[in-house]
């Protein structure tokens, strides 16, 4: 069985698209997935399945729409992809520390998890929103974002949707916590 992490976009944000995690877990179990576990209210679900990723995302999106009445994008990563994402972080520990020291919100490193790699044309357009405060690097389907101020006031963050690729953003602490769950699961 493959260990997957489903990352749902835009649930439980600003009082919209409310989903209780026990309900989400029950839906995943009803779809036949095993060892289902949720983490925090932003829609992170660990589960195991023999199905392939290319059919899983759509299947999960359809079930969420059927059960909750709204559409959300679902981004999937395997346990191996999550581990690789952490090891491949293109920003040094020093760069991250420097960004965090100038960021009043504390969180500086994020990953936008994309369903597919964006086109070069879209990346070049997004480049117009890079600054000394906001930078990014894309590796495959993962976009690493480093904010030296706030993600909330970032022009770069506010234009990520212009990549025209379904995506969801998680902070680095969440990515690492999900990996801890994956490692614990693989070790047991």
TrEMBL record:
<dbReference type="Pfam" id="PF08002">
    <property type="entry name" value="DUF1697"/>
</dbReference>
<dbReference type="InterPro" id="IPR012545">
    <property type="entry name" value="DUF1697"/>
</dbReference>
<protein>
    <submittedName>
        <fullName>Cytoplasmic protein</fullName>
    </submittedName>
</protein>
């Amino acid at each position: 069985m493959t260990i997957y992490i489903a990352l749902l976009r835009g649930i439980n944000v600003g009082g919209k698209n409310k989903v209780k995690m026990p309900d989400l877990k029950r839906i995943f179990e009803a779809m036949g997935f095993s060892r289902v576990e949720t983490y925090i209210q932003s829609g992170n679900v660990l589960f195991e399945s023999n199905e392939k990723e290319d059919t899983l995302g759509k299947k999960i999106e359809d079930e969420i729409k059927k059960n909750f009445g709204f559409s959300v994008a679902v981004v999937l990563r395997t346990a191996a992809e999550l581990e690789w994402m952490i090891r491949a972080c293109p920003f040094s520990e020093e760069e991250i520390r420097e960004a965090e020291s100038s960021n009043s919100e504390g969180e500086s490193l994020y990953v936008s998890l994309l369903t597919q790699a964006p086109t070069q044309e879209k990346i070049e357009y997004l480049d117009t929103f890079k600054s000394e405060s906001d930078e990014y690097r894309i590796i495959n389907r993962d976009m690493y974002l480093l904010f030296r101020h706030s993600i909330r006031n970032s022009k770069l963050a506010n234009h990520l949707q212009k990549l025209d690729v379904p995506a969801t953003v998680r902070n680095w602490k969440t990515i690492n916590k999900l990996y801890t769950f994956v490692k614990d699961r693989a070790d047991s």
